[in-house]
Amino acid sequence: MKNSIIATCMLGLTLALTSCGDVMDEITSLALDRNLSPINLSASVQERTNVKLTWTTVNGATGYVVEQYDNDSLSFDGKTPSATYSVSPDNVPYVISGLDGETQYSFRVMSVTSGDDSRNSKWSSVYAKTGTEQIFYSLSESDVKARSVTISWPAGQAAQRIVITDASGSMVVDHALTTDEIAAGQATIDGLTPETAYTATMLRANGKTRGTVSFTTAIELAANDILVKAGEDLAAVIASAADGSRLVVMPGTYTLPDPDGVVAAGAVDISKNLTIKGLRQNDHPVIIGRFTISGGSDIAFDQVTLDGTGTSGDQAIVFKSAGDYNSLSVTNSEIKNYSKGFYYINVAANVKTITIDNNVISSIECNGGDFFDCRAGAIQNLVITNNTVYNSCAERDFIRFDDASGSFPGVTPVITVDHNTLDAVSAKADGSKRLLYIRFAGNATTFTNNLVTNTAANFSNQSKTNPATFKGNYYFNAPNLLPGGINGKFFDNDGKVADPTYKDAAKGDFTVGNDVIIAAGAGAPRWLK
């Protein structure tokens, strides 16, 4: 009896083992009653008002149904979709274009099999918020007058009004669009002030933005203005101009003479309050030569091209005399072809503010000097914003600010570097050069919203350089500015890495093709359109 029981148990064990062996055979196909739901569903905003939907295609599905829900955040319940799309597997990823700006959309995707609704999968869902719509055409020089602006957009594209605000954000004009203006796609708006920065915003009836454009109104000559015509001797006009004059320079080429006849283009000294401004925003006068500063309190260059071709090789602007100065500003200009650097202060000059804003700066080799170079002076506020610097400062320091604090008690410099595009700056291969070679005691630096590419530079390796405040910066091929880099005293721990995919950097076109950087607004604004 006992033997019979044992035999029966052994037979059961054999059958069990055989059964397990069957289960472990390779599975070569799996038949399901319905399609699997799409996985890895994601939504990304492109060109402000397009949404790209991406998901992993499902084996056995012949297509997909995409439902769109406006002003929604994955609720769906009890709602009718605002749009439905049939998508073939070959059209994944799928782009939905022409959406409203500043709107949150929910999307859900279902995999289907043609002719058999019973195989429809469950929904996969995702949401995205579109950016601010932009339907305005670019403004030309002729569109912007001293007291008015003409704004254009595709004919027939409707909106309710165009609101114009000033730099403080205060509304200046609220222009209700007419039927004729909408049909024509154009409106001329008056009531503006000459030489003033404005932003025009087109709004729908629901308050959402259809387009935004910023501009500065044109010049209207004032009593202290001197109109300089092409062919005039600019150096002579500067010498004879009264203190406080503004030279409004017409388009043309102006070569500053060298009194000694040694070089093709010389340096002109400024010893008074003076502004040199190009007449036109998009057709700058080209001034070939250099400038020295030995007096005056406020000196400004605006809407000009400063070209160092044929000069002595020194910096574009050099402070020659000690003393107190209120401001130096270089704005909305192009600066190129200087050998040693941009500015140079090697005297006991105490400058309250230096502003370098919205310029394109190139081909400044820095042979024998650093780029922004202050050695014996003081700059209380150094503002470097919205500039593009490339093909420059290859093996020198970007901002050099030596410690002359003993000569200027109480001065604690504030340095602001914001929204600049810097390509191949301080790029010496050994990583020894610095973007922030700042040693003046008590300095405080912010480095924000910049796009820095193709450099081996560190920020600083100096004990007197206080760590900068970083925020919103993007980097590409700039390893020593980020944690883990070499030679640096400090790094940008908040910095992001992304390839900007410049349109044509070799030709000076730094238009950004990376939507992530565009959305973040990093770098010079001119390249983020």
Describe the structure.
With 529 residues, this protein is mainly beta. Helix content is 8%, strand content 37%. The chain has four helices and 40 strands. The strands form seven sheets. Strands 14-15-18-21-24-27-30-33-36-38 form a ten-stranded parallel β-sheet, covered by helices on one side. The chain has a ten-stranded parallel β-sheet with strand order 16-19-22-25-28-31-34-37-39-40, with no helix packed on it. Strand 14, helix 3 and strand 15 form a beta-alpha-beta unit. It starts with a helix and ends in a 9-residue tail after the last helix.
- Into which percentage range does the β-strand content fall? 35-45%
- How many individual β-strands? 40
DSSP helix fraction: under 10%
Low-confidence stretches: 1-30
Q: Looking across the biggest beta sheet, what order are the strands in?
A: 14-15-18-21-24-27-30-33-36-38
Q: First CA to last CA: what distance?
A: 92 Å
Main beta-sheet strand count, sense and barrel state = 10 strands, parallel
Shape: globular
Helix tally?
A: 4
Gyration radius, to the nearest Å? 32 Å
Q: Structural class, from helix and strand content? A: mainly beta
Mean pLDDT: 93
